[in-house]
Amino acid sequence: MANYMLTLEYDGTAYSGFQIQKNGITIQDVLEEAVGKIAKEPVKVIAAGRTDAGVHALNQVVNFHSNLSVPVEKLPIAINSLLPRDIRVKSCRIAADDFHARYSALAKTYLYRIRQGEIESAFERNYCWWIKRRLNIVLMLEAGRLLEGTHDFAAFAASGSSVKSTVRTLIRYEQAAFAGGVELRFTADGFLYRMARNLVGTLVDVGLGKREPAEIPAIIASRNRDCAGATAPASGLFLEKVWYE
């Protein structure tokens, strides 16, 4: 039985996240149905990251075990023919038997897109956080750099998480500013439930002058969710890359 590794991109607007749920259609629901039709048996896919409702992916990675008659190089076309247009398989290969999309990952990079201006774009509304007020991106970068390193990120974790430890390493924080807004990138060895969106909400508070960059260490030390910023909208978040050896 081969271990197939797929790289996907999807628009998460119409879905209740990646992982199968009792209520609402998910990316996993749709993908497993499509792959199952090709395999002629039920297939269970494992994702690198369980993106939330409304969150998108540029390079989500999944794996599953099956014996398929379709050649591996033809699988993206075959699977895409059975998928809605807002989910696409970009590539497929045979991975090592012990490869696990989630546990084999060394790090993940999440991209968050912020757009600014008085009038919100009709075309960008599902793919960014539209903020009318001008952000101080210099202060945001200063604050973001203070998040780098190994910390207990409990203050940035939403309730409902059952992880054993809230310690994570934020390997790198990056910003890319342009005329229409700013893009934020977080690369970490792991993310807590809604951690990326809570980090963004806190950095936006800094950008709007509601808090100072120097407050970041105290927020981390507090381990108190109430001390950090509000959760940023899901629409601006993209799983950009999953890092493996």
Task: For the structure shown, list the relevant keywords.
single chain; 245 residues; alpha+beta; Alpha-Beta Plaits; 5 helices; 20% helix; globular
Task: Describe, in short, the structure shown.
This protein is α+β, with helices and mostly antiparallel strands and 245 residues long. It has helices spanning 27-39, 75-80, 137-147, 195-207, 216-222, and strands spanning 2-10, 46-47, 56-66, 87-95, 107-116, 129-131, 149-152, 167-178, 181-188, 237-243.
Give an overview of the whole structure.
With 245 residues, this protein is of the alpha+beta class. It has two domains: 2-95, Pseudouridine synthase I, catalytic domain, N-terminal subdomain (Alpha-Beta Plaits, 2-Layer Sandwich); 107-243, Pseudouridine synthase I, catalytic domain, C-terminal subdomain (Alpha-Beta Plaits), CATH 3.30.70.660. Helices cover 20% and strands 31% of the residues. The protein is built from five helices and ten strands, in the order βαββαβββαβββααβ. Strands 1, 2, 3, 4, 5, 6, 7, 8, 9 and 10 form a ten-stranded mixed sheet that branches. β2 and β3 (56-66) form a beta hairpin.
The count of strands amounts to 10
Largest sheet: 10 strands, mixed
* Mass-distribution shape: globular
> At the fourth CATH level, what is the homologous superfamily of the largest domain?
Pseudouridine synthase I, catalytic domain, C-terminal subdomain
State the order of secondary-structure elements, H for helix, E for strand.
EHEEHEEEHEEEHHE
Which topology of the largest domain does CATH recognise?
Answer: Alpha-Beta Plaits
CATH class division of the largest domain: Alpha Beta
| Tally of helical segments | 5
Helix share, percent: 10-25%
CATH architecture of the largest domain: 2-Layer Sandwich
Look at the structure and give the mean pLDDT. Answer: 96
Please state roughly what percent of the residues sit in beta strands, choosing from under 5%, 5-15%, 15-25%, 25-35%, 35-45% or over 45%: 25-35%
Query: What is the CA-CA span between the terminal residues?
Result: 23 Å
SS content category = alpha+beta
Unreliable residue stretches: none
**How many structural domains can be distinguished in the coordinates?**
2
Radius of gyration: 19 Å
